[in-house]
Design brief:
Blueprint lengths: L1 E5 L4 H10 L4 E6 L10 E4 L5 H11 L3 E4 L6 H6 L1 H21 L3 E7 L9 E2 L10 H13 L5 E6 L2 E2 L10 H10 L4 E4 L3 E2 L2 E2 H13 L4 E4 L6 E2 H11 L7 E4 L14 E2 L2 H7 L6 H12 L6
Bound molecules: NADP nicotinamide-adenine-dinucleotide phosphate.
Length: about 300
C-alpha cells in the first residue's frame, strides 16, 4: 500500500507516518520543518500552492491520503480568513477530487469545534454548528472531503504528546515547561476538553482504515475536564507544584476566537473497533513512561 501523509512533520502526522511504516511505501509532507523519518520520503509542500499539491499527489500515486495539515492556531483563523478558507476548504476539495479520481481513500482530520458550546454529548449524527471561523473552515473541509465517497472524517480534540523541536507544543508540554521553571501558570477555567493522546489517535485512525471504514468518527480521549483540572493532573503526574496553577476567565484574554466546549461521544469507535482511548491520567502516565525511556516512543 502507498500512503501519503499531508502534514507528516506535525504532531499527529509524524505518528501516522511511524505507525504506517510497515504497511508499504510512505510519503509525507512538511512545510517549514523537514524532520526526516528513515524509511519514508519527505516532500516540501505549501498548501497554498494548488498546482504543487496536485503534482505531488500524482507523483506519489497513493492508495490512501491522510490530511493532517493544520494552520498555526484557532485565533489565526479568525484573523486570516481568506488564507484559512484556502488552507482548510479549497485545498481539501482538490485533495478530495484528486483522490476520488485515482481511486484512493481520503482521511481528513477535523475537530470538536465544528459543534457549538452546548451542554450535551455530541455523536456523529448531530448537526454541526460552529461558533468560530476555525470550526467553520474545518466543517468546510469535512464537506469538501465528501467529494470522495471513500472518505473518513475524524473529529478529535486537544491532541497531546511529546513534540520534536519546531513542532507546535501541546497544552501538556507548555504547562509542564512553565511548572518546571517554577513560573505561575494561568489557564482558562471556562475551557473544557477531551484531551487526546496522540498515539491513541494515530492507532485508532489506522485501525479504522484497516477495517475499511468510511464516514465520520469521533476519536477523543476518555476524560472531559476543564483546564485547571487538567493542569493539576499534569503537575501531579510530573511531581510539580500545583500551587503555581491559577484559573482565569478566558474573557480576560480578549482572544479573537470564541472557544466551544463541545464534548464528543466515543461510543461509535469503541463499539466498532473495541478501542478505548486513554483517560488523561493514563495518557500522562504514558508520556511519563516515554520520558523515562520505558515507553514505545
Ligand atoms: N492539535 C489539536 O489539539 C487538534 C485538535 C483538533 C483537531 N486537530 C486537527 O488535527 C490535525 C493535526 O493537528 P496537529 O496538532 O498534529 O498539527 P501540527 O502539529 O500543528 O502540524 C501541522 C502540520 O501542518 C503543516 N502545515 C502548516 N501550514 C502549512 C501549509 N501552509 N502548507 C503545508 N503544510 C502546512 C505543518 O508543517 P511544518 O511543521 O513543517 O511547518 C505540520 O506538518 C489538523 O488537521 C488539526 O486541525 C488538532
Amino acid at each position: 500500500m502507498r500512503s501519503l501523509v499531508l502534514g507528516g512533520s506535525g504532531l499527529l502526522g509524524r505518528h501516522l507516518v511511524l505507525d504506517l511504516m510497515h504497511s508499504g511505501d510512505i510519503s509525507f509532507t512538511y512545510f517549514t520543518n523537514p524532520h526526516p523519518i528513515p524509511g519514508a520520503q519527505g516532500h516540501k509542500l505549501d498548501l497554498k500552492d494548488e498546482k504543487g499539491l496536485e503534482v505531488l499527489i500524482d507523483k506519489t500515486d497513493p492508495d490512501i491520503i491522510f490530511h493532517a495539515i493544520a494552520p498555526p492556531s484557532v485565533d489565526w483563523h479568525e484573523n486570516e480568513r481568506a488564507a484559512a478558507y484556502l488552507t482548510n476548504v479549497s485545498s481539501t476539495r482538490i485533495i478530495a477530487e484528486r483522490s476520488r479520481d485515482m481511486g484512493a481513500k481520503l482521511v481528513y482530520i477535523s475537530t470538536a469545534f465544528v459543534f457549538p458550546d452546548l451542554e450535551k454529548i455530541f455523536n456523529e449524527d448531530d448537526i454541526p454548528a460552529p461558533i468560530n471561523f476555525y470550526g467553520a473552515t474545518k466543517l468546510g473541509g469535512e464537506l469538501a472531503s465528501k467529494q470522495n465517497p471513500d472518505h473518513l472524517i475524524i473529529r478529535t480534540d486537544q491532541i497531546y504528546g511529546w513534540s520534536l523541536p519546531g513542532q507546535k507544543k501541546s497544552f501538556v508540554e507548555k504547562t509542564l515547561e512553565k511548572l518546571m521553571r517554577k513560573e505561575n501558570v494561568e489557564v482558562c477555567k471556562d475551557w473544557l476538553n477531551s484531551p487526546t493522546y496522540v498515539k491513541d489517535l494515530s492507532q485508532a485512525i489506522i485501525a479504522l482504515t484497516e477495517r475499511k471504514k468510511r464516514g465520520t468518527y469521533h476519536v477523543v480521549g476518555s476524560s472531559f475536564l476543564d483546564r485547571v483540572s487538567w493542569a493539576n493532573k499534569i503537575a501531579t503526574m510530573f511531581a510539580q507544584d500545583t500551587s503555581l496553577i491559577r484559573g482565569i476567565d478566558s474573557s480576560s484574554l480578549n482572544l479573537p476566537a470564541r472557544r466551544s466546549n463541545a464534548r464528543l461521544s466515543n461510543d461509535k469507535i469503541r463499539e466498532e473497533t473495541g478501542m478505548r482511548l486513554k483517560t488523561v491520567e493514563e495518557g500522562l502516565e504514558a508520556m511519563k513512561m516515554e520520558m523515562d525511556g520505558h515507553g514505545d516512543a
